[in-house]
Every structure is written in C-alpha cells, then in structure tokens.
Design goal:
CATH architecture of the largest domain: Orthogonal Bundle
Oligomer: single chain
Structural class: mainly alpha
Number of domains: 2
Strand content: under 5%
CATH class of the largest domain: Mainly Alpha
Amino acid sequence: MILKASAAPVRGAAATPSLVASELSDRAIVDEVLAGKTEHFEELVARYERPVYALLYRMVRRREDAEDLAQETFVKAFRQLDRFDRARAFRPWIYRIASNSAVSFLRRKRPAQSLDEDEGFREQLADGAVDSPRDLAAAGELESRVTAAIDQLAPTPRAILQMRFRDHMSLEEIGLALGKTSNAVAVSLHRARLDLREMLALGHHHEDGDETS
C-alpha cells in the first residue's frame, strides 16, 4: 500500500528516506522532525505505513477506505507530532490515531453499530453464516478459517487481535493505542478468543454433520 504523495504534506523531495534517518530510532526521528528536518518524517511513514494499513483494513474491511484512513492517520500524526510523548513508544501512538480515525469513520458509516460488541455475531453463528471448512481452499485451510472467524468480530476486537498476535504488542501498548486500560484490553481479548473458539467449533460441527448426512 502506497500513500498518495499529492495528499500528504509530510513527503519530502527525496524519492526515498535518507540513510541517516533510517539509522535513527523512532524517538530520534521525531526529535529531528520537530527540529525542522521535516523530510525525516518520510522514514516513519516507511516504517509504519504497512502495519497501520493492516490495522485499518482489519477494522474497516475495505481497501479503499483503509488507504484513505492511512493517509489521514499520517497527516494527523505529522500535524500533532509535538504532542507525542517521547517517553513512550511511537507505535502505540500512531496506532491510537489510526484506530480513532477508523472508529470515527465507522460511526459515521454505521452509527447504530457497536464497535466493541456485534449483537448479530451469535445469530450469524447460529445461522451458519460462515462457510464450512469444506468450502475453504485446501491449502492454508486453518488460516482461512481463522481469518473468516476474525472477520465476523466487531472492529475493536479485530484490532486487538491484530495488534496482539500479528504485531506482538503488549496489553499495555494495545491499551495506549485504543485508549483502554490493560485490564480492559485483557477482557476484550479473552472474549474475542472465546468467540473465535466457538465459531471454529461450530464450523467443525457443521462439517461433521454434512459428512454424516
């Protein structure tokens, strides 16, 4: 995923990040940008555009929307960089901007839908809305089933799973990214895993039923 350069004031004249910037830590780059070397922000974009896009896509589930929100995220980050607490890690901060943008987008799009709870989730499970493993490709069948199950969750649990298991973030980092306490993240993570387990078990039950009918 490539950010639209014409819409991002953070892009410098250089086609690629400078070698010097690429050797700096996130915090050091922020210091450089705030000191006037704004072209170094390009390195932060290069480091985080793919994980930010992946997080947003997991939440909004539409490529074009995720790309637009990623663009918006980095523009906001550039403009608000002086608010970044350099005693903390950069990744949870940029994820917080991204997740807030996604939440605002989803509320505008579906104001009646809860972002933490999907009231229709268990009804979809009961109705067999998810394909049986038999309908999935033979290669990577388990991964496909898990991905399909995750996509049935509400946006916030999807984001938590993305950050925990794909980005390997701690509960504290996820909490910082979502504006939640570590305990609240732990509870949400536990509930999401229970829902996934139930969905995957139901898929096996449907498959067994098909084989015996």
